[in-house]
């Protein structure tokens, strides 16, 4: 329950394309690493020329793949609600992809060595855990998908305390791809696995928030709740998981994501006030002007964060542009409602 590997929605197709590009990026990066090693090791001039040509070809391919991935990350429309009512799109985040992992032999060996019990007796439980990991790679975009990710995250807590002693390594590498660039990272530490799953919990909340019908009060409340929870997940990740090998889990990127989610919450609050505002008196219009100014303020902060040195070249250009447009849009709205209050209201 909560796993939907064969779903044919636009969002799942986007995720499958992202996974394919991630694999191609991984392959090109391995080729580049091999070519760079050969270039440094050889003293033959002809070989160096051939390898340099190959490197330029690989780098060109990598650039094209990264541009294709950025285009996918810019496809915010497929995550929005299908309602005919016009609403400004929200920015969701794609899930991190991961490779399959076989923990059967390492865990059985550890049980035999460390606990002195026959590892084969626990084969059924280990396989169930591996099935849970496989299922959480393709969560459905709803509460059931979130519960699936949370169940796996909770199991990692118990796994960490029993099977990952500080003095011993299982020799297992956890492979995850950066959610925006597709660059692969791997670590032996289970904390990387836990952090990546928590990141996906936050990312799934952004997708659930983006798909709500914000023309209705229930939809707005659900969107506010989802973006608040996404901000909480990214903030917890920033404060509790350090030394992340991937850019999407660096402190600078997580700080940007927290601010972006807070801004989207604030935008939904403004839309809720607009929906509930039935009176056209001076104070009501002034409150709308103040709220619009508050939305402009938080989006300006997001734009400032996105244009910092460590984040500027990482964030999709369409995100930065949309955030800037929203900042100017709500600045204009704040002046508009203030003018209406002063000119049209007694």
UniProtKB/TrEMBL annotation:
Pfam (any one): HR1
SMART domains reported in the protein's UniProt record: BRO1 (SM01041), Hr1 (SM00742)
Domain REM-1: from-to ranges: 4-78
BRO1 domain span: 89-346
Biological-process GO terms, alphabetical: negative regulation of stress fiber assembly; signal transduction
Keywords, sorted A to Z: Coiled coil
Protein name, as recorded: Rhophilin-1
Keyword S-adenosyl-L-methionine attributed: no
